[in-house]
Every structure is written in structure tokens, then in C-alpha cells.
Amino acid sequence: MPRLQEEAGTALSEAPSSTGAGGRPGRRPALLWLLGVVAALVVVADQATKWLALQHLSPGEPHDVVGTWIRLNLIRNAGAAFSLGERSTWLLTIIAVAVLVAIVTVARRLGSTAWALALGLILGGAIGNLIDRFFREPGVGRGHVVDFIDYFGLFIGNVADIAIVTAAVLIAVLSLRGVPTSGEPAGRHTEETQDDPT
């Protein structure tokens, strides 16, 4: 009987864990949902504000919001931020698609709420601008992005850009703190395991 118990105990101890990332059951699906919801909200907000901008703003007619520091100023941007790469629209489209593929790949090992939020923001921002690239004039893959938020007269962006910049800052903070996309650092998990007498 003890022999059977030992064998049974061995089998149980060798069985693969059914817990998700970070040792919590079902955590990864929940994080993927969070990533998807954040991305969807960014896309909706981005496209809705672009539609409003096209309906109520005219190019070359800025409207002050916070003095002359922040203005609503409609332009159609063929390039990236700061209007760079205006003659490389196809290249920018390809890069954006590559970013989407990279995010999907990283999401397969997602185990951190902060990383899910960051990836959701950058995914939503990338999709928001890609919609413009594919469906706006002058043509598929070469469409101009609708920008309308003028910052200090230095550059003009949109909601998708805000999401991407916010994600970049969050990713930088997470990287500096050593937080991997899979969750808490392995060293911390090991310390908690050693402290647990069970």
C-alpha cells in the first residue's frame, strides 16, 4: 500500500500543471482578453475622432484648444511621426504589419497585466493607422493617415499616436524594472517558493 501511494504521489508530482502564466489558473486567457479589449477601444476612439475631424475641420484652419500650444489642425500625413518618410508609405505599411505579427507572437507567452495593457495600446494604435493606410486615399497600402492634434506647432498626431507613445513609455518602464512579458522575474518566484514552508 505505501508502495502504491509513493507511485501515485510520484505520478501526481510529475503531472503537468494546469495553471496559466504566473501560476494562476486561466490567467493567460484573461490577459489576452485585456489586450484585445484595450486594442479595440483604441481603434474605435482613433477612428471616431478621425471621422469627427474630417467632418468639422478644414486643412489650414487650426482651432486653438489650449492657447496656441495645443490645436486642432487637420492634415493628411503620408509619412510617419514628424512627417518623416513621406515618400516611403509602402515601407511604413510593411513595418506596421510586421509590428502586428511581433505583438501576436509575444502575446503567446503573455503573463503580465502591465504588458497586456502596453501591447494592447500599441496594437490598437498600429491597427488604427493601418486602417488609414489601407482604406484612405490615394490607394491601398499608400493611404494618408488623418492627423489633427497639433502639439506646440512641432508635430501633428492622432489618438493612435497617443496610444503608441504611451505604450512605448510603459514598455520602457517595464524593461528597466526587469519585468518580462511572461510575468514576474523568475528570481522573485524562486524566493517566494523558498519562503513557503509547504
TrEMBL record:
It is an enzyme of class 3 (hydrolase). It is a multi-pass membrane protein. The active site is at D147, D161. Residues 1-25 are annotated as: Disordered. It catalyses: Release of signal peptides from bacterial membrane prolipoproteins. Hydrolyzes -Xaa-Yaa-Zaa-|-(S,diacylglyceryl)Cys-, in which Xaa is hydrophobic (preferably Leu), and Yaa (Ala or Ser) and Zaa (Gly or Ala) have small, neutral side chains. Signal peptide: none annotated. InterPro entries: Peptidase_A8 (IPR001872). GO terms for molecular function: aspartic-type endopeptidase activity. GO terms for biological process: proteolysis. Keywords: Aspartyl protease, Cell membrane, Hydrolase, Lipoprotein, Membrane, Protease, Transmembrane, Transmembrane helix. GO terms for cellular component: plasma membrane. It comes from the Bacteria. Pathway: Protein modification; lipoprotein biosynthesis (signal peptide cleavage). The chain crosses the membrane at residues 30-49, 89-107, 114-131, 151-174. Its EC number is 3.4.23.36. It is found in: Cell membrane. This protein specifically catalyzes the removal of signal peptides from prolipoproteins. Belongs to the peptidase A8 family. This is Lipoprotein signal peptidase.
